[in-house]
Task: structure prediction
Amino acid sequence: MRNRRRLVLLALLLPALLVQAADAPRTARTRISEIDPQTLPIEPIARVVADRDGDTVPDRKGEMVRVRGVVTIPSDVLRVESLQAAIQDETGGMGVFNMRESTPLAAGDVIEAWGRVSQFKGAIQLENARVRRVGRAALPEALALSAEEADGWKHVGRRVRVEGLAGAVTLDSYSMLRITGDDGIPLQLFVPAPIADGFDWKRFPRGTRVAATGVLSIYKPTWPFDGGFQVVLADAGDLQILQPPPPEWQRWFLPAVGAGLGIVALAGLMILLLQRRQRARDRELSTLSALSRAFADPDMGEERLAHNACEILVAYDIVEAASVHVFDDAGRLHRVAATVSDGRLNDSTPPAEGDDGTGGLVARLREHGVHVLALSPLPGTATPIGMLAALSARPRPPSQRQERTLLSAAKLLGMAIENRRIREAARREAEALHELVITDELTRLYNRRFLDEYLRVQLPLAERRGGGLAFVAIDVDHFKRINDTWGHEAGDRVIAGVAGQLRQASRGSDLPVRLGGEEFLVVIAEHEIDGALAFAERLRVAISSQAFEVAPGESLHVTVSVGVALFGVHGTDAAMLMRASDEAMYASKRAGRDRVTLSTTLPAISG
Result:
């Protein structure tokens, strides 16, 4: 016990030693004395001590800031020979500290302080702070809190008032009084050394109901700073007796009579509390585990991911209702999933129209009689991608367990949605790249590279089936004349128009290909020569009937020469069939163009 007291005493001196060590190399950081305070804007204390990521460390740690506030703990209370005090403004409170300064500050002094945001054992303060008095004001009204409310970060730095039953007292160069609130939560009252002598501790025996007014602070040796909250008193009058303890005979006689029952009851209560806490922790871990499993499927869509999150949060009794809202490109929130367990919320969950940011979402939920228990952002790569809303049928703050679980659920869901979007974008890019590789840029028909791959698969199948493929070669007649007369842009329009006719005439089993220039090939699923010739003739007529625009308000008709070769009749490999259809197409040109010709090439017979 004595060693622990000495550790706490050393902890009070440690901030100054750390500051002194940090200032040793003059070039390491800018000294406070070298800074013109007028260059720093006066900021609300709540903005300086904000911890938006919830890691119990202020987001602005290490920054130079300037604040204004009322002194709530004088400088001669925490440290006599140097500057250490607590201040508070309308938004929050914090400490100021400087080992080399000894500016006397009284309670009620209004000061401006500038220094570097620091943290010692969890308590947030301005280190190497410089101060200037600017007036006097009444002390901020103390906020009445339960012990459970005081055992957290929400009101740290503010003047508070707590009530409880006095317990153990630690006396040294400082004093600590442990009290227990009506909610059963223990809390420490810290009495600094300069005022400890003003207390008659015999007036505060165990069981005395007391009220303490002071500044809510924290003392925890290691990070994270999620425990060790205490109320620091500034004057002997800050500790008042509300009710004396029961008479001595009651304190000893009644416990002696009921000792056995008391022990059993205490043991049962401890077991119950431990089981309750363990169940709560197990439920929290089970919820996060279920969320992780629910987000593991890489093929799950965003709406399914959001729906799973809402279902699990409600099913595991974390919240009564939950909804997920995602930002669109215009910054409006759209609901993508919602789950409700409380019947009072069934008819009041708002529809999925867009909201102008989180403020619009909260306002619209209230219009439908829904209270927002918590609103957690879904983190994205740069900015939040949406919000996870925990809803309630009545206004109330969330518990610490709910806050932790909802924050973790929002992070998991945000990562799952972001990963889904990254995978989807990668898939689309891969498809687009693949499309560029296998298609012709002008006509969007398949190119020669894809044709080779297609025939590598289809020709062996045709050989096993005994046929079923025909090659139809197409060439635009007098295409050079079109380019020479109307220009290459007009030629490109004609090529694209012919390609459109090929796509329209082809069936799902056919493959239209641009070989290059004005040459095309359609590989069709056809067993009979008559069927292949009929397809080619329909294609020729369709192209010759089409008017192609070559300039604004001007169009022309073109014809094509077509050659047809059939698998098994004119060849069985790609080179032979393409040569046969190509020779037939040139035969059409020699015969006067604008016609279809069947190949006369016969495959060579070996042996």
Summary: The mean pLDDT is 83. The first helix runs from residue 2 to 22. The chain has four domains: 2-136, 143-245, 283-423, 448-598.
